[in-house]
Amino acid sequence: MALLRTRLAVLGSAVAFAAGVFLPAQSAGAAPSSAQRLEWVALGDSYTAGAIKAAGDTFEVPRDGCERTDQAYPQIIDSDLGSLVGLTNVSCGNATIENVHVREQEPIGHHLPPFSTDPDYPFPPVPPQIDAVAPDTDLVTVGVGGNTLGFGEIIFNCLQVGQGSGGVGTPCRDELADSIPERLEKVSSEYGDMLDAIHRRAPFARVLTVGYPTIVPQDTGKCRYNDWEQFASITRDDLDWLRTDVLEPLNAVIEQATHQYGDAFVDLYRSSHNHSVCDAGKWVEGIFTSFPNEPALVHPNAQGHQNAARHVEDAILGA
Questions:
Q1: Domain of 61: which CATH number?
Q2: pLDDT number for residue 319
Q3: What range defines the domain where residue 280 resides?
């Protein structure tokens, strides 16, 4: 990250030099202008916010239920780049695409029965995240779509129908496969509407969309049936289906919508191939980080957010 900071400093010096060459000298008595920071708004769901203990500590006081953590990738980049960026992070756990651009959200905190309850639940509604985007916003990053697809619901359903299967068969695929094309079409349509709204709100901003990392390994033989720190009762064949027919198409839909609007897509999938829930060096936690006390419900840990920070920061520099 230090190298990235140096690159930004060099870039800033070059811009300042060019301005001195091509712009008229400041009139006598005028206050010198300070270096302009990049005004950045981070939008997204729990894969941006952090949400779980393995992604750090929440830092809002009082809590708003969105569960932004100090080791999530927006906070890592903000710490690394310091005064070069001004971050407004309004990402929120459990956010849908509509919660980003059109509909207020009722955050759930850690209230996820039957896995966990939150003593502060219920939380007051938070406004649509796009309210934080202004005409002078320079950069918008957004990582969302999984909750619109219903990924959490799909996982919970797979857990239920996989119980008693002995890890054999495709009970989840058999029940849900017919619904996936319609779910993906919903993501595609709403993602385009969201990007359109962001560009209207901040017409000169650079927009970066952030995809989802590898969650299920290519070799599902790594996954142990009934291991709650992996995928618990989801069968290996259903995990293959989740990877090829649900998660990979979700990233493809987001990337396609991004390119249609001339924006940049940050791919986290390829760089995390060997760091799935079932890998020894996992960057995404399973149903639990530590069974039965710490539910994680398949979310990136601090290492996963470090990887995301590297790629998003490179994209910011490239922009």
A1: 3.40.50.1110
A2: 67
A3: 37-154+186-221+247-284+296-318
Q: Which residues of the chain, if any, have pLDDT below 50?
A: 1-34
What is the amino acid identity at position 274? Answer: N
In a domain, 254, yes or no: yes
- Cβ pair 311, 203 in contact under 8 A: no
Q: Could you tell me which of 30, 45, 35, 38 has the C-alpha nearest to residue 13? A: 35
- CA 250, CA 246: separation in Å to the nearest integer? 6
End-to-end CA distance of the chain: 17
Structural domain contains residue 208? yes
Helix axes 302-318, 73-81, angle to 10 degrees: 50
C-alpha dihedral sign at 189, 192, 194, 196? negative
Which candidate, 126, 81, 82, 99, places its Cα nearest to that of 43? 99
Q: Do 254 and 265 meet the contact criterion of CB atoms below 8 Å apart? A: yes
Q: Are strands 288-290 and 38-44 parallel, antiparallel or unpaired?
A: unpaired
AA letter at 215: I
Asked if the structure places residue 25 within a domain, the reply is: no
pLDDT tens digits along 248-264: 999 999 999 999 999 99
Site of tokens 């987001």: 254
Q: Is 268 inside a domain boundary?
A: yes
pLDDT score at 318: 85
pLDDT of residue 307: 98
Tokens, residue 251 = 């990233």
Q: Please tell me the total count of domains within the chain.
A: 1
